[in-house]
Amino acid sequence: MRSSVSAAAIAAVLSLAAIVPAGAASKAQVKRGEYLVNGPVACGNCHTPRGADMAPIKDKAFAGGFPFNDPGFMTYSANITPDKETGIGSWTDAEIIHAIREGADKDGRIIFPPMPVPTYNNMSDEDVKAIVAYLRTLKPVHNVVPDPKYAIPQQTMPPATVKKSPPQSDKVAYGGYIVNALAHCFECHTSPGANGVPDFKNGLGAGGFLIALGPGMSVATPNITSDPDTGLGKWSDTDIKKALTEGISPTGGHLSPPMPYSNFKNMTDSDVEAVIAYLRTVPPIKNKVERTDFQKKAFP
Ligand code: HEC
Ligand code: HEC
To answer: Ligand 1 in contact with 258 (CB < 6 A)?
Structure first.
């Protein structure tokens, strides 16, 4: 029977509509947002400032101010708590969604790099809405963040078009979604081209990108392609899982920030397995990356 929607089901939907006001987030949405933000998406990896020891400052969670000192720009992560004056408490949902997926603030100013907006451009409507629902529940923290300076030209992003994420039952597709729409692995792990920015065409996942945590504190990202000699080709699933969730690698010892393992450790086993299944499909590129002296010394 096709027209099998029962009167009872319709009544149930109507009564739900009556108790959940339009625009209000459901509990399930907030829970999904909490999982994404503190797990695979790791917004706090940039938006929570760190002390001199690089540990996140707990009572300033998501309050911004972490500096990104790059030859091309000097920016500070924004305060994304609901504080009305210094955070995003007065922004509408649509304005926050636009900032995350299309990279412009409510006045139209472009806010990236380094925020991985090209990755978030692939984020689904349901996931970005869940993230906003969770951000609304954070403790407001009053924290003024300095203005950014960009020396490089900034690109604009096309409108985001992904409505639904792929089904979690399709491990490789869902793992690809986590990597390319949420966890921005490649924005850190891709080799730089001649202009110093990640070369997604020729160096996808091949590492060697230098990230400065501070003066004299540069870290080089490893090769995470499936190349057997210089990438992850010979690593077992357990080896990769340990690196992602515990920050321990069979070749590199303790992994340094900004590898977001303290967020990735909150990922479900099934999401970690999906990421690994997808990584196995990333074409091998031979590129041997040496850890910097700082990496070896500070995170042996
Ligand atoms: C790699 C670092 C990085 C990551 C990861 C990141 N951001 Fe950002 N974000 C920034 C920086 C830096 C700025 C400030 C840029 C500027 O002012 O030009 C910013 C700005 C913003 C803004 C604009 C706020 C304002 O007041 O202008 C919002 C909203 C935002 N981020 C939300 C998020 C959310 C939500 C996530 C996770 C889904 C996230 N960001 C992940 C670095 C990051
Ligand atoms: C913000 C940048 C950043 C992001 C995002 C990131 N990584 Fe990393 N990752 C690093 C850095 C830096 C290291 C090296 C740390 C060290 O050696 O001390 C690293 C190390 C690793 C290692 C260990 C490799 C080795 O040879 O020791 C693996 C595996 C890895 N990352 C996979 C991933 C995957 C998969 C994702 C996405 C789910 C990801 N990373 C996201 C920066 C990042």
So the answer is: no
CB of residue 185 inside a 6 A radius of ligand 2: yes
CB of 148 sitting under 6 A from ligand 1: yes
**CA 132 to ligand 1: nearest atom:** 35
Chain-centroid distance of CA 32 in Å reads 15
**Whose atoms come closest to the Cα of 110: which ligand?**
1
The preferred substitution site among 30, 77, 189 for testing ligand 1, maximizing ligand atoms within 8 Å of CB, is 77
Per-residue pLDDT tens digits of the chain, which is 300 residues long: 344 444 444 444 444 444 444 457 899 999 999 999 999 999 999 999 999 888 899 999 999 999 998 888 999 999 999 999 999 999 999 999 999 999 999 999 999 999 999 999 999 999 999 999 999 999 999 999 999 999 999 999 999 999 999 999 999 999 999 999 999 999 999 999 987 889 999 999 999 999 988 888 899 999 999 999 999 999 999 999 999 999 999 987 899 999 999 999 999 999 999 999 999 999 999 999 999 999 999 898
Atom 8 of ligand 1: nearest residue by CA position: 115
Which atom of ligand 2 sits closest to the CA of residue 249? Answer: 27
Six-digit token pair at 24? 């209000």
Atom 35 of ligand 2, residue of closest alpha carbon:
185
Q: Where do runs of H (alpha helix) occur along the chain?
A: 7-19, 27-38, 44-47, 93-102, 117-120, 125-135, 171-177, 185-189, 237-246, 261-264, 269-279, 293-298
Cis peptide bond N-terminal to 56, omega within 30:
no
